[in-house]
């Protein structure tokens, strides 16, 4: 009996060694660690220097801060988890030391799952808050910051509840090779969870597109009605913040959607498609798309904010600037003088009456 158990354990240790030292797997572990290491200071800079100083309404600003802070925490957890994967093989004295301790795996896997899925659900709050802001455009600038924090709390608690339901029957007693690999007992529930997250990502993206279309029509309607400057300003703020959240959501959908589709496909085709258990495990253990997003979104976010600020500056300049030279300048001067004398004449007539 003891000999059988020893043989099984040795087989698992051999499998851990084959997977760990697979060239493609090794490179993927290094890439995930390296890109997460770069993403941590980049996200922190973007959060403090760009997001915290945005002139958006407090509700959407609070949710954006929570979104990028959760991405920062996620990048930190991934850096620690995959740093462990990358460096431990250099110091392991036996194959069995490559197998993760059950408690360590549980802490690393659950924390990574939580901080990976929070940014997937928070964009739902973006869409809800933007629709509310659009519906209350006449008075939304005076609305206090409450809806944003409430949505964040509700979505995070929903995420925690979903993760709990996935792992509530999991004992975490299998030999684990990677923090990203899903325990066999919870595999079916996790697949359903991934499908749900994919549907959420796609649905939320289309909601953002619909929001911008509705906003465009509403903005034209308000302009024809000659609404007050405060309403126009609020519509412009809603437009800019909605465009920014759309860019964030679309970029997130590209990277995270690719990962979700890839991992669901790998789990669906099974090990026979890959020609063995080792390459199948390697395919499941590669985790590059989402950590790469954590770095890429910083550059995308900075560029999009720069473009929005440039368009706003140009729009203001084109609105308030009046040419004073040449034929157009003479025409502008003539119109200004005519308007002035018309106002003076109407004032004199009023006095005489």
TrEMBL record:
Classification via InterPro entries: 7TM_GPCR_serpentine_rcpt_Srb
One Pfam family here: 7TM_GPCR_Srb
Keyword Transmembrane attributed: yes
GO MF term set: transmembrane signaling receptor activity
GO cellular component: membrane
One record GO biological process: sensory perception of chemical stimulus
Principal location: membrane
Superkingdom of the organism of origin: Eukaryota
Keyword annotations: Membrane, Transmembrane, Transmembrane helix
Keyword Plastid found: no
Lipid bilayer topology: Multi-pass membrane protein
Residue ranges crossing the lipid bilayer per the database entry: 30-48, 60-87, 107-126, 146-167, 193-214, 244-264, 284-302
Localization per Swiss-Prot or TrEMBL: Membrane
Residues annotated as signal peptide: none
Family: Belongs to the nematode receptor-like protein srb family.
PANTHER family, A to Z: SERPENTINE RECEPTOR CLASS BETA-1-RELATED, SERPENTINE RECEPTOR CLASS BETA-1-RELATED-RELATED
Protein name stated in the entry: G-protein coupled receptors family 1 profile domain-containing protein
Organism the protein comes from: Caenorhabditis nigoni
Gene: Cnig_chr_II.g6440
């Amino acid at each position: 009996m003891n000999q059988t158990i020893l043989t099984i354990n040795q087989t698992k240790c051999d499998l851990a060694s084959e997977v760990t030292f697979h060239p493609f797997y090794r490179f993927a572990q290094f890439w995930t660690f390296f890109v997460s290491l770069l993403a941590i200071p980049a996200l922190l800079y973007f959060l403090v220097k760009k997001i915290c100083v945005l002139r958006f309404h407090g509700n959407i600003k609070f949710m954006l801060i929570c979104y990028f802070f959760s991405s920062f925490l996620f990048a930190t957890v991934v850096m620690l988890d995959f740093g462990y994967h990358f460096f431990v093989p250099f110091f392991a004295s036996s194959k069995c030391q490559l197998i993760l301790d059950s408690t360590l795996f549980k802490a690393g896997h659950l924390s990574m799952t939580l901080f990976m899925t929070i940014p997937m659900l928070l964009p739902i709050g973006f869409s809800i808050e933007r629709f509310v802001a659009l519906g209350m455009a006449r008075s939304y600038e005076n609305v206090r910051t409450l809806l944003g924090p409430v949505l964040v709390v509700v979505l995070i608690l929903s995420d925690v509840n979903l993760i709990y339901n996935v792992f509530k029957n999991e004992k975490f007693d299998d030999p684990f090779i990677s923090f990203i690999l899903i325990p066999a007992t919870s595999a079916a529930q996790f697949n359903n969870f991934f499908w749900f997250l994919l549907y959420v990502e796609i649905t939320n993206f289309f909601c953002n597109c619909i929001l911008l279309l509705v906003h465009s029509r509403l903005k034209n309607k308000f302009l024809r009605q000659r609404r007050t400057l405060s309403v126009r300003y609020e519509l412009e703020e809603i437009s800019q913040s909605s465009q920014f959240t759309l860019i964030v959501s679309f970029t997130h959908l590209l990277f995270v959607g690719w990962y979700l589709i890839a991992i669901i496909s790998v789990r669906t085709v099974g090990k026979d498609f890959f020609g063995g258990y080792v390459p199948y495990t390697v395919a499941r253990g590669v985790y590059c798309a989402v950590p790469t997003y954590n770095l890429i979104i910083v550059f995308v976010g900075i560029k999009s904010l720069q473009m929005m600020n440039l368009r706003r500056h140009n729009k203001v300049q084109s609105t308030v600037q009046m040419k004073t030279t040449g034929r157009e300048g003479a025409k502008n001067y003539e119109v200004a003088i005519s308007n002035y004398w018309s106002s003076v004449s109407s004032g004199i007539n009023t006095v005489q009456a």
